[in-house]
What we know:
39% helix, alpha+beta
Amino acid sequence: MSHQSTVKVSRRHQIALPSAARQQLRIRPGDRLIVDIQDGMLILIPKPESFTAFMAGLHKEVWSTINTTTYLQEERSAWEKLKTG
């Protein structure tokens, strides 16, 4: 869902997040945001408490048809070949 609004930068270079954004993203006082700049855009992303928990299961569909044990063995073998020359 897309929602646009405007904010004003204060003399101290601060902004107030619109209530719709805070509610939709469940941002509370004291939460931390990641500030990212991409192609001239300022992007604010709520920082997860644990990146490990946040990313757990991410893109699991990519690995659903791959035997991960075989894949890891092949990768390790390739690294060993590089180390030995």
